[in-house]
Amino acid sequence: MIDLTKVIKRLELIRNLISLEENDSISEQISRLKQLQANDEVQEIINILQQKAYSKAVTAIDGFLSKYNQLVLYTDPGIEALHFEVKALEKQVVEQQLIPYRKKDKWGFCTPDKKIVIPCIYDHMLQFFDGLAKVEINNKWGFINKKGKFVIPCIYEGANDFYEGLARVKLNNKSGFIDKNDEFVIPCIYEGANDFSEGLARVELNNKWGYIDKKGELIIPCIYYFNELARSFSEGLVKVQISNKWGFMDKKGELAIPCKYDWIYPFSEGLARVKLNNKWGYIDKTGELVIPCIYYFDEIARSFGPSKKVGSSFSEGVASVQIDNKWGFINKKGELVIPCIFDWPYSFSEGLAAVYNYKNGKKMGFIDKKGEFVILCIYEYANDFYEGLARVKLNNKWGFIDKKGEFVIPCIYESASDLVSDCFIDFSEGIARVKLNDKWGFIDKKGTQFWED
């Protein structure tokens, strides 16, 4: 049996090695790995593994190996062995994987070979998360285990998945949190609540919002309006608005970065996008401007206005910026690493970024970290890659492509509206939720449909 903890420790050794000061024996390799943001990518693989998303981790490791090739061979233990270990972890999960299965209008669970192991008796359900699946009967929600037995009865008006050991539930139109024994850890006394993240959850009392810990103690008092306090912490900080200016608060409820900005975005990869005097730049966690506020930002009228604009938060070591109405990418030093030649890019995900080509009828394709097209702009819409596949739209229908641009799942699925979220949930643990003939169902990466009408 492969031990996930040991796999993560091996990855941490590699990450820490990349962080070391250079020495004579490996200076060239470390220098190149630092330049290529390898440390961030190893950390991302660790994060994925901690979420037990093994299929996604295999894809991330394969991408890492194909990108850095022999550069990682100096590591001891080497990352190349992790591919096989995570594959083994993935196999362990697949062997016990249960997939939501719809029989007409009722839901149950089946194995990957379509053997139904939990009967289709539920009105609605979602896939298993952290060992339990959320199910609905007669407009009430509860949780079952992989044997189909109720762990938590369907008594709640609303319920969300378990995050950090607690699930948000609603009773009598109030929100609280239960553990997996159906014991109330935090009673249903709040008008609203968000899931726990980084040990804290945002809650609402008397139309004001604050944060509680897992004991239910108020860490940040409920004194902020909904749009003055972000819904979750990111990298240890949460954005907050005081006197119409934005800053960041730490987990003690103390201001870590003063409220002096016109607008801010959450921290991503150690940097946060901030707006000052109508221009955008990036700060680090000390509040220091790492990339000066020299960019304008306009997501809607992006073809007009000033000459420099800032786009996304950092992802995979780069962020998009606009210069003279064309978009490219900068690194964390503010250096332009992909020239501003694109009409509109998305963030990088699994080594590729979706971009628009307006001259081609606003079609989308994908570029790599060199700024070169690897998938041509032929799609009406394209989303990020997840677990090696990206959803794309052709002729108003949806399907999935791989990183070579080849169709793995043809564009046969529909959307009830123009909202992307109304059509798909991207692949997670090897399955995705799709809509066909105005009904929802799940598919795997082979396109197998887990339903019958």
Structure characterization notes:
By secondary structure, the chain is mainly β. Among the domains are: 4-95, no CATH class; 362-453, no CATH class. The protein is 15% helix and 44% strand. It has a four-stranded mixed β-sheet with strand order 3-2-1-38, with no helix packed on it. Strands 4-5-6-7 form a four-stranded antiparallel β-sheet, with no helix packed on it. α1 packs antiparallel against α3 and α3 packs antiparallel against α4. The protein is flat. The protein starts with a helix and ends with a strand.
Keywords:
four-stranded antiparallel beta sheet, mainly beta, flat, 453 residues, four-stranded mixed beta sheet
Indicate the topology.
Elements: H1 4-19, H2 27-35, H3 38-50, H4 54-68, H5 82-95, E1 99-103, E2 106-110, E3 116-122, E4 124-125, E5 133-137, E6 140-144, E7 150-156, E8 158-163, E9 166-171, E10 174-178, E11 184-190, E12 192-193, E13 201-205, E14 208-212, E15 218-224, E16 238-242, E17 245-249, E18 255-261, E19 263-264, E20 272-276, E21 279-283, E22 289-295, E23 308-310, E24 319-323, E25 326-330, E26 336-342, E27 344-349, E28 352-357, E29 363-367, E30 373-379, E31 381-386, E32 389-394, E33 397-401, E34 407-413, E35 425-428, E36 431-436, E37 439-444, E38 451-452
Parallel strand pairs: 1-38
Antiparallel strand pairs: 1-2, 2-3, 4-5, 5-6, 6-7, 8-9, 9-10, 10-11, 12-13, 13-14, 14-15, 16-17, 17-18, 19-20, 20-21, 21-22, 23-24, 24-25, 25-26, 27-28, 28-29, 29-30, 31-32, 32-33, 33-34, 35-36, 36-37
Instruction: Kindly report how far apart the N and C termini lie.
Output: 40 Å
- Can you give the mean pLDDT? 81
In terms of quaternary structure, the protein is single chain
The number of E-state strands comes to 38
Strand order of the largest sheet: 3-2-1-38
Largest sheet: 4 strands, mixed
Q: Could you list the spans in which at least 5 consecutive residues all have pLDDT below 50?
A: 15-36, 69-80, 298-309, 416-424
